Amino acid sequence: MSQSDHELAAQLATEAGRLLLGVRSDLADGSEAERKAAGDKRSHDFLVAALARHRPADVVLSEEGADDKARLTADRVWIVDPLDGTREFSELGREDWAVHVALWQAGDLVAGAVALPAQGVTLATPTVAAPPAAPDVARIVVSRTRPPAVALAVRDALGGVLVELGSAGAKVASVVQGISDVYVHAGGQYEWDSAAPVAVARAAGLHTSRIDGSPLVYNQDNVRLPDLVVCRPELAAAVLAVTAG
């Protein structure tokens, strides 16, 4: 029986995560810059080679590789971020970094996996458990150092609190896992930053969109996809009332 795209996404994200943990261990005495460079390259090389082996007819769009414009006419495109949260990865002991592997087909995301290697967790389609019941106070997840103004506005409108985490994948995963309730970003991202996290969030029944409420569209000529909302569906209307206003 052939391996499904869902199974392959989960397998490759998990294996790339193990590789990255090995890089971190091997370079524990090295500099943060050395860990960043080695992590990005080794994970990218592994994912590209593995996809070429398992899905040779498909095209790959990776943050760390050249943009092959053949993807614009391809039926299937894998969108990967070999190491999401390079800075967090480089800081020994940090757990809020991820590996993203997603598949776009016929105009939409059809499979995806987000590995959180330092947590020993991989979230993957087709079925992702919905987050547990929400607390009384909404939790808005933001970066440690630069929470965007729109997220602060959402916090104020919802009477919520902030939760600080690193990478985009870790932030979306925190909503899926019930650690936070809302992720709003408007500071600039690319398709690989959100493709796999959005696929996983959708499988968990969460709301996903641009901050104006329009759909998130992938495999575009311009891979910049600067903003998104991922949140519990019952909070979507209130969040979009702020972000799309």
From TrEMBL:
Organism encoding this protein: Mycolicibacterium fluoranthenivorans
Stated name of the protein: 3'(2'),5-bisphosphonucleoside 3'(2')-phosphohydrolase
InterPro entries: CysQ/Inositol_MonoPase (IPR050725), Inositol_monoP_metal-BS (IPR020583), Inositol_monophosphatase-like (IPR000760)
Reactions accelerated catalytically: adenosine 3',5'-bisphosphate + H2O = AMP + phosphate
Required cofactor names: Mg(2+)
Domain of life of the source: Bacteria
GO biological process assignments: 3'-phosphoadenosine 5'-phosphosulfate metabolic process; sulfate assimilation
GO molecular function terms attached to this record: 3'(2'),5'-bisphosphate nucleotidase activity; metal ion binding
Entry binding sites for Mg(2+): E63, D81, L83, D84, D193
UniProt keyword annotations, A-Z: Hydrolase, Magnesium, Metal-binding
UniProt xrefs under Pfam families: Inositol_P (PF00459)
